[in-house]
Amino acid sequence: MDRTVRTVDDVFELLDGLFASRDGRWATGDGAGYWDRFYADRSKPVPFFVAKPDEGLAGHIDRGLIRPGRALDLGCGPGRNALFLASRGFEVDAVDLSPTALAWAGDRAREVGVEVRLLCGDAFRLAGTELTGPYDLVVDSGCFHHLPPHRRVSYLALLDRVLAPGGHLALTCFATGAMGSELSDADLYREGRLQGGLAYSAESLRGIFSDLTEVELRRMNDEPAGSALFGEAFLWTALFRREARVAQAGEGDGSHPSAAATRAAIASRRSSSATG
Question: CB 99: neighbour CB atoms within 10 A?
């Protein structure tokens, strides 16, 4: 008989385990093996294997919505967005679970002559150590939709910790009606499977990231093969901004801890999950 749960991390680890046997824990700390196999064949016709940045991210920069600064690429894969940002004057940290993906990103960086700091491991664990922040930009193209529902708490805690006031989150994820599972959060736990990734509606994204200000949220443009940009219509492209906050009455005095403060407490503990 096991009675081992005594912390929030223990609960999250237990919930992670519900998805372990069938999904291979794609987005959790021991998922490197799955992603290594996924990235092993660089010739596979996977849409996001191309060395092109997201059209939304490129557009945000071209329109002046994002300016060069420190950037963090979560679940960077072969580095297509990280390398683009470095070429546009950003100081980039890029993290992924997969050594194979990072080796590919390193090869690409050398080919085009840019510098990116590549970090292998669990972004939730690396926050506060390797990922010290503050970052002016956090980029996520395809990581968030592979997280089980409870890991959204870890994700928001990571943003609370590393995203600078005035900084931006550039997010690309599966859209409802186009790609990904549309099971409810509760049904995902009953099934014990993430079914290849979770679809999100615009309303659900606005709710999850309600602590941030929406700058743009739209379906990604479907870019033709000859385009210099990556774009698939089954994805959302979104830009959210963290505003400088003014403490409200009761905040900071211990009487009414904010949601962000609660998440920060979770982030300060060692998490068993990761991005990938």
Answer: 15
